[in-house]
């Protein structure tokens, strides 16, 4: 089938109008009219991910994070990023990204994270007018846990060596939890105002963390790579759409490459 059929389905699920206005979502590279047969999902489009796709004869990559945040200044192929673009073109691989629109969508990134975090009665943290889409999610745990207990659960859930915890008291019980995938430091006042006991997000800034302590709030930062949950979730969605629409696709699978740039020692 043509790539534009899959793109249309993705955009019906995560409408582009939900995206942050400066977010470079959508078709990143390639021809939407190209026939595709093997689809791979990934969090990030990195050279090692592209090589994995080439080795697996992939012709469509779905990425959560846009491939091109900063436009290339030239096409010097000694630059690894430029060489990666050239390899994608050479091997006829279409690349498409759904980022903040997938974050905000009903049944998208933040709902996936809320479910993984065992939250119940979930609603958008910063809702759009429809009340069902928007940034982040907030919900409750079935039973209260201490900050330390819940932080350990999150550490194990996202398979990181450690999480960063910003809290005055690790023994404090928490039950109402807000989550925002990716970099959510600017939105912590929204989580506080919404009545959350704790807020799960990533890339938390040092000086903002002092503000959190001054507010006697709790933040747990498990690393931006927690959004890798999108890889398998998108595989399941695409396979569901394939069955519903009788798409002629050979395979859909997630990248096995861990693109987390951090090493915890």
From TrEMBL:
A divalent metal cation 1 binds at residues 65, 103, 224, 227. A divalent metal cation 2 binds at residue 64. GO terms for cellular component: cytoplasm. GO terms for molecular function: metal ion binding. Pfam families: DUF34_NIF3. Keywords: Metal-binding. Belongs to the GTP cyclohydrolase I type 2/NIF3 family. Homohexamer. This is GTP cyclohydrolase 1 type 2 homolog. It comes from Weissella bombi. The lineage of its organism: Bacteria, Bacillati, Bacillota, Bacilli, Lactobacillales.
